[in-house]
Automatic annotation (TrEMBL), chain A:
Keywords recorded for this protein, A-Z: Membrane, Transmembrane, Transmembrane helix
Keyword Cell inner membrane: no
Name of protein: HEAT repeat domain-containing protein
Spans through the membrane: 86-107
Annotated Pfam families: HEAT_2
Keyword Transmembrane belongs to the record: yes
Top-level division of the source organism's lineage: Bacteria
Native organism: Spirosoma sordidisoli
SUPFAM superfamilies: ARM repeat (SSF48371)
TrEMBL record, chain B:
Residues annotated as domain RNA polymerase sigma-70 region: 14-76
Protein keywords: DNA-binding, Sigma factor, Transcription, Transcription regulation
Example of a GO biological process term: DNA-templated transcription initiation
Highest rank taxon of the organism: Bacteria
A GO molecular function held by the record: DNA binding
UniProt signal peptide: none
Residues annotated as domain RNA polymerase sigma factor 70 region 4 type: 107-158
Family: Belongs to the sigma-70 factor family. ECF subfamily.
The protein's name in its UniProt record: Sigma-70 family RNA polymerase sigma factor
Lineage: Bacteria, Pseudomonadati, Bacteroidota, Cytophagia, Cytophagales
Amino acid sequence: MKPTIDQLLARYYEGETTLDEENQLRAYFQHTESIPDHLLPHASLFQYVTSARAGQLSPDFTTRLDQKLVPQPVRAMGRVRQLTTWGMRLAAGVALLLIGFAGGQFYSRQSPDAAESVELATTGHPAGESIRKTLAFDAVAQTSASDRIHAINQSAELDRADREITQLLINTLNFDANVNVRLAACQALVRFEQEEGVREALIQSLRIQKDPNVQLTLIDALVAIKEKRAAADMQRLARNQQVLDIVRLKAEEGAGALSQVARSTS
Amino acid sequence: MDLQAFKQQILPIQNRLFRLATMFLRNREDAEDALQDVLMRLWSNRQQLNTYQSVEALAVQMTKNLCLDRLKSHARQKNVDKADLGSVAASQLSPYRQLELADSADRMRQLIDQLPNVQKLVLHLRDVEEYSFEEIEQVTGLSINAIRVALSRARQRLRDGYLKLNDYEADY
């Protein structure tokens, strides 16, 4: 005969039930509604057991455990990977530093040369070198008008010019394509009026120049340096119908002034 | 023993170990933490694992010891919080469960908490995990008779405690 629940319970509390019987008890006490009142206090333990059995690990436990359990290979791999990434970072950093240093070296090696050459130019032949360079005939194609004007203006720093520089300036005055460069050359030459050949060059240039601006500047310059020999050329210019009226007037005025000077000195 | 073999041995029992740890520690997070520790110790001792008769028994023993150790250090660290432990554990359950079992389950849990550790362990292994007496003997090292006695005492104590609590409330 099947033992009653009460009998089973009694044996249960004595610790004598089998696992099967205990399961019967648990199943019985699972349905709270059907339990008679006098048995109700016993239900709690069985219900606790049933609920405790439902306890399960959280789903991510295994993955977390795996991460910890495979420390050697995973961590080793991770370490290697990290090392490489760190290595990469380090390499990148070092490379950056090297590039920086190399760049610095490169520039500091270059700039001393440049500085030296500048020094040479400014100490040895102040400004002369760069003027020569810029105004050299074959350099015209590579230099801009402003470069040449700048070079010409540099000549102002020279106390006295040598033959070569005045010749360059004269060439520029006569043959430069840019009017402004020619004007600048003209003004520069006036400063070197005492150099040999400069006055003659200015007179000669007066005959060559076609640009009214340059012509006017030349006339002014020749009057300023009181070049009496230019008077004849100026009169010729004044009589030339092809030049602008203002130039002719200026030439006449200049010729007058120069002849006055000639008269007063003689 | 490679990881695969280890997991094959551990996987079937890790939920058991977890429940055991939960029973002792009353807290999901602590239990998982403890279980992780146990499994890691097992893993680091995997070379000697084959010399044991039953890995499960070993694991259960280790879990029990670790949990008791933790409870001890925990109690030493902050025995003030002991009252809170039950409610903390209760709040780990789903609201539905809480409602359903709030009264009796809470009381039962408190009563189990008050049991001596041996009785707690035996009761848990027998009732929750359905271990045979032989298996419990393997785990605890107690004689079958002692196990029976401990089990019977634990059950009776729970019943008496529960009745007392209810009577106490009924008297009110």
